[in-house]
Protein 1
Amino acid sequence: MENEYALKLLKDHLQMVDGLEYSERQEALVRGFLAGNVFDWGAKEVVKLMEDGLGFTEAGDKLQKRPWLHDDLDAWVKRQQQAPYKCAIIFLDNSGCDVVLGIIPFARELLRRGTRVVLCANSKPALNDVTAEELMMVMRQVVLVCPVMNKHLETGTLCVRESGQASPCLDLSRLPLTLVDELVKWQCDLVVVEGMGRAIHTNLLTSFTCDSLKLAVIKNRWLGQRQVFFITYMEFYGNYVN
């Protein structure tokens, strides 16, 4: 149901993003990425909001105002003005608005810049986290709306892969060897980790030998009781950043 709801909004959302100038578009893509990450059935406070009819625009309005808890948005926009990445892997989080209105537009921007994109989702279900099998079904609907995604899916510069996980967390030591071999072959130089479980709980201190993005909306009981917004975390580690 959440996927169907989000897919109905995708065309208009992409048109809105495309109408923005460069810097505004980069910020809108990141904000959309984070707004989508609000939709998490593993957070009790968010579940209540979702049951009450939380929409994608409302979720964006509830994000913490900048500067965020960790805010590297400006550094990311600056890096995007340089040469495009060769290959990016994105470790996805939730179904619905998260993947359709958050991840898809973000991945589309990378693809249009000449970056190969690997969408990596859970092998088995956990909460409302998207699985690789489910993601393939979603992509069949996405390509009907977006010619860019259709082109890259057909040529293989966009692909869906399994992470080997069945948890809201991410254990990088358990990635399938076939996936690791592909990333080496494609010279992966950007790792994107999304979500509170993957980016904060299990990989906050993880360092990579290439550029990395960790994005998450922190949603828990303490925040739900004391604040009207969700704390936002965006960490970018680039090869030009000290």
Protein 2
Amino acid sequence: MIEIRHLKTLIALRETGSLVEAAERLFLTQSALSHQLKELESRVECELFIRKSRPLRFTEAGKRLLLLAEDVLARVSDAERDVKKLVHGEAGRLYMAIECHSCFNWLMPTIEVYRNQWPAIELDFSGGFTFEPLPALAQGDIDLVITSDPQAIKGVEYVPLFGYEMQIAVANEHPLAAKNYLQPQDLADQTLISYPVSRDRLDVFTQFLLPAGVEPAAVRTSELTLMMVQLVASGRGVCALPNWVAAEYVAQGLISVRSAGKNGIWPTLYAAVREEYLALPYVQEFLALAKAHCLKNLRGVTSL
């Protein structure tokens, strides 16, 4: 008989590509994992993956069981979620704010899925350009803030969603596009296009320019990411964008991107939540959905 633990093992093997990493993910020794796989292959009377292949490759039988694992584990997850709803109730409020419009790219699909799973939760959201969302969170006016700029506020917890690289976008024919990476001084004679927020909330200033004592020649603002990209593409300035945002426009051939410094700058995107909200099942579910969607769909982001 195939058990849930077997299916979880197959998924872990597919996602990691190695027995060693799969064992670590499942909190098993490599010996215990190997024994479990031999047991499963004995039960189904066939081999499920090709030994000594790198990355690990599944046989046709293994691929068929992977399909079963995806279906069954998804159903188990749905059932667990439904039980939580029955135990803890479905009613609640989740008012959200975001500190950059780029997050709309992944937030809206996450919300659509979430609405179907938690229809009784009252949802609303707003941008963070016209007010300070983190103080509003602490005061109870909103319930969750998407931010890359955590502040020490009593009663507020920060849940990491994913890591990403802040990249400098330039026109394809810009002289800076010839460099492998950029230094702060490279922007001293450039117009920097940014979102209309204070400098202390922009990584390009706090982690790149200001520590080096560099000031751009001019600063121009726009609330719309697409407008920023169009200005850069037409040679009217440079801008800093998350790699997962810039990737779309690089793929279209509109702009080029370079790392800020030899090793790049890698901020973390967080979900800020009040402490008393963090344990609520419908909040936990939203955070899980957001993480899963981003890690699956956004280019260049890293799990934390």
Protein 3
Amino acid sequence: MKSLKYLFLFGSILMLAACGQPESQSQSEKMEMDDSPAVVGEEVSYSAGDLTMNGYIAYDDNLEGERPGILVVHEWWGHDEHARNSAEKLAELGYVALAVDMYGDGRMADHPEDAMQFSGEVMGNFENANERFTAAMETLRNHSMVNGEQIGAIGYCFGGSVILAMAHSGADLDGIVAFHAGLQLPIMPEEEIDTEILILNGADDPMVSEEDIENLTSAYDELGTSYEFVSYDGATHAYTNPAADSLGQEFDLPLAYNADVDEQSWERMKQFFDELF
């Protein structure tokens, strides 16, 4: 009888161990899931003068407390999925990100001629451009999850030009990262710039000349601006946008996605904001 009793106890222990292991794994998996970002994306409208701007704000709902805010300024095509995806990726990193609308009413260009017109309307009237950008910045700054003392910006192509011009004009930005930005700007640096600047361009970008680079970096050097200019070999214009290949082919434009450089430049951006904030 004793042997049967011990046998029963031994079997019970084995059953408990077997049943307990999956429960432990489940708890571990649950903890991992709880620690992973829970990105929430929300449509947001704000005004610049009489114009309604349609943006998109993203944040990690699992985080508590205020955190830095980062503006995302779109390419010359307009407020698109590329900008929204970047906002969500920034939210995964712990920021609150606002993909802005610089054209108003969420306008999108279907053709390069339209994109040229829309972007020209913005950059050709810097007072209006500044009003639109400032409205977006204040919308982000006033968000309940944002530390209003920590605001940065990233921009692509046209958007990169926008944030560079804004930094040159004295916008209250801690740091900016410009991806494949045009460097012929409506506002060039003439006074001391408080904003930290990182420019990540493609070495094979035919839309940016060596003269453009020299003019800008020389001005920075003369003013003692804190900046870094990175030129990626093998990368051309719009290298961060997965849609660049099809757009380039459709409209015979020198656009091409470069997955490796896209990843490298994003990692460099992450390091930049980690050090800044």
